[in-house]
């Protein structure tokens, strides 16, 4: 755009957010996917203690992201860090930002599909038995995780895919911690 002020021509660059092209480092997939936190259908427990749904969801979401990003089957869209995005947006809209950097605004990618699910069951139990003859204590530990999922087309909320997976783990000793059991089963389920 050229503007004439008192016979002086001033060139002013005009940038449009549609001009911005993502600087993807790798070839992008054809479709984008957002992974939403799973819901729990009932109280979950691990070794007699209440399981934090938020912590279990973090494990599940991270496991999906860690498995799907390298596969390049979907472009993953982050919806968990919108507060960080708002901070960056405030910085970009500030007068100190160069106009050509402001084209980054309004370019959030919409998700073609969303992954939603339910934690149907998670439990970890231990039984111990005192062996009188040897004076030792014997442990038997078992755990189970069942996840149900759906992939929905965002525009129509049509169910594109659905299923469930159940994983079990047991051993003839005590579990070291609930977190290790959760991490192991989530990794296997995803």
Mean pLDDT: 81
- Amount of helix: 10-25%
Distance between the termini: 53 Å
Instruction: Provide a count of the helices.
Output: 3
Counting helices, strands and paired strands, the structural category is alpha/beta
Task: Explain what you see.
There is one protein chain. By secondary structure, this protein is of the alpha/beta class. Helices cover 23% and strands 37% of the residues. It is built from three helices and ten strands. It has helices at 53-71, 82-93, 178-189, and strands at residues 2-5, 8-11, 32-35, 39-40, 45-46, 49-50, 75-77, 113-131, 136-153, 159-171. The strands form two sheets. Strands 3, 4, 5, 6, 7, 8, 9 and 10 form an eight-stranded mixed β-sheet that branches. The chain has a two-stranded antiparallel ribbon with strand order 1-2. Helix 1 packs parallel to helix 3 (178-189). The longest helix is centred in the N-terminal third of the chain and has 19 residues, at 53-71.
Keywords:
single chain; 190 residues; alpha/beta; eight-stranded mixed sheet; two-stranded antiparallel sheet; 3 helices; 10 strands; elongated; disordered N terminus
Describe the secondary structure blueprint for this structure.
Elements: E1 2-5, E2 8-11, E3 32-35, E4 39-40, E5 45-46, E6 49-50, H1 53-71, E7 75-77, H2 82-93, E8 113-131, E9 136-153, E10 159-171, H3 178-189
Parallel strand pairs: 3-7, 3-8, 4-8, 5-8
Antiparallel strand pairs: 1-2, 5-6, 8-9, 9-10
Helix pairs in contact: 1-3
Give a short overview.
With 190 residues, this protein is of the alpha/beta class. The chain is built from three helices and ten strands.
């Amino acid at each position: 755009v050229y503007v004439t002020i008192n016979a002086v021509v001033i060139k002013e660059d005009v940038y449009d957010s549609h001009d911005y092209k993502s600087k993807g480092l790798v070839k992008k997939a054809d479709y984008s996917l957002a992974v939403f936190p799973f819901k729990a259908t009932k109280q979950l427990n691990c070794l007699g203690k209440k399981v934090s749904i938020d912590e279990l969801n973090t494990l599940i979401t991270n496991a999906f992201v860690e498995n799907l990003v390298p596969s390049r089957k979907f472009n993953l869209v982050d919806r968990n860090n919108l507060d960080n995005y708002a901070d960056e947006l405030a910085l970009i809209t500030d007068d100190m930002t160069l106009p050509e950097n402001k084209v980054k605004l309004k370019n959030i990618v919409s998700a073609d599909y969303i992954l939603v699910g339910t934690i149907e069951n998670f439990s970890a139990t231990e039984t111990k038995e005192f062996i009188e003859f040897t004076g030792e204590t014997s442990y038997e530990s078992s755990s189970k995780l069942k996840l149900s999922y759906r992939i929905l087309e965002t525009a129509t909320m049509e169910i594109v895919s659905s299923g469930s997976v159940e994983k079990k783990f047991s051993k003839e000793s005590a579990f070291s911690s609930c977190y290790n059991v959760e991490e192991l089963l989530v990794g296997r389920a995803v």
